[in-house]
Specification:
single chain, 205 residues, alpha/beta, two-stranded parallel sheet
């Protein structure tokens, strides 16, 4: 199976030609392909580590600024990881050979909405929100047509977004050692480059 994050296929299951070198690693043979909308790491569920979550939740806990790109109105489609797994399972067991199935959550949210919801769940004020200069070429919106997998395989996302996000926040707060380990070393360098020294980084581009 090919789990891809680049150019999504047509909604009828036919593949869209890709530029040379595009796409994720492929498995040999005529397997079905499940294509995820947007970034695969955008799963509001325990152990989710999308950039917006890994900065917002720990920072809010420590009353530190929550960096938000640009005006915060970039849109992403969110899906619970268990719903994503169920969709892949449906494709593996019931999918048509050679077909392409888009997996989407039908749950588009602006980044600023996510940050505000996290703050509300944690009982923190929105004064922690800090807008930082957007990166060049930052995609404004990720959108995907997942009607084929819904109609052909009967799959639909089942997890309510608000419930999934609350689960995620609670998991982060209950697993501080894991978070501290992940945020150490390389992550700290990334965070410093992309946020604390953002102006300097962008000027070098």
């Amino acid at each position: 199976m090919d789990i891809s994050t680049d150019a999504p296929p047509a909604g009828d299951g036919s593949a869209v030609p890709r530029p040379a070198g595009a796409g994720a690693a492929r498995s040999p043979g005529p397997l079905n392909r499940a294509v995820s909308g947007g970034r695969i790491d955008r799963h509001p569920v325990p152990r989710a580590f999308a950039r917006i979550l890994r900065s917002a939740i720990p920072n809010a806990k420590e009353d530190k600024p929550l960096p938000v790109y640009g005006d915060g109105k970039n849109i992403r489609d969110w899906i619970h990881v268990l719903d994503h797994c169920a969709a892949i399972d449906a494709v593996l067991h019931r999918g048509r050979e050679g077909a392409v199935y888009n997996i989407g959550g039908r749950c588009e949210r602006q980044n600023i909405e996510i940050v505000r919801q996290i703050l509300a769940i944690m009982g923190k004020g929105e004064s922690l929100i800090t807008y930082v200069k957007d990166r060049p070429g930052h995609d404004r919106r990720y959108a995907i047509d997942c009607s084929l997998i819904e109609k052909a395989l009967g799959w639909h996302p089942s997890m309510n977004f608000e419930q999934g996000l609350r689960q995620t926040v609670e998991w982060y707060l209950q697993n501080e050692n894991w978070i501290a380990e992940v945020k150490s070393g390389g992550y700290q360098n990334y965070y410093r480059t992309m946020y604390e020294e953002r102006e300097k980084t962008l000027n070098r581009l």
